[in-house]
Design brief:
There is one protein chain. The protein contains two helices and four strands. A four-stranded antiparallel sheet has the order 2-3-1-4, covered by helices on one side. By secondary structure, it is an alpha+beta fold. The chain is elongated, with a radius of gyration of 27 Å.
């Protein structure tokens, strides 16, 4: 079952930001990781069979203060049927202009 884990990490600089994302992606079972929140200080990790305690422990050891915000299933996206459009292939037929004069042999 797909699950989504949101972790709040105190990231001061760009180096810590990249390091935190690299750690989040390195855990087994992670399919995607992205920054969320107004200050981009939260990391949302989605995948199957992710250990949230392992994730927070690694981030605390290597990056800094980490707080587990939420763990839950991934919301299924409802796909709406798209209207099909039929295109007539002969509607946009262009006439050829013929062979250019320099290709025509005078003989």
């Amino acid at each position: 079952m797909q699950q989504k884990i949101v972790v709040k990490v105190s990231m001061d600089g760009d180096k810590k930001t990249r390091k935190a994302l690299k750690i989040a992606v390195s855990i087994s079972g992670v399919e995607s990781a992205s920054f969320v929140g107004s200050d981009k200080d939260q990391i949302a990790v989605t995948g199957e069979g992710i250990d949230s305690v392992e994730l927070t422990t690694l981030l605390r050891k290597k990056v800094g203060y980490t707080e587990l915000v939420s763990v839950g299933p991934v919301e299924a996206k409802k796909e709406e049927p798209k209207p099909t459009v039929q295109v007539d292939p002969y509607e946009y037929y262009y006439h050829s202009y013929g062979v250019p004069y320099y290709y025509v042999s005078p003989y």
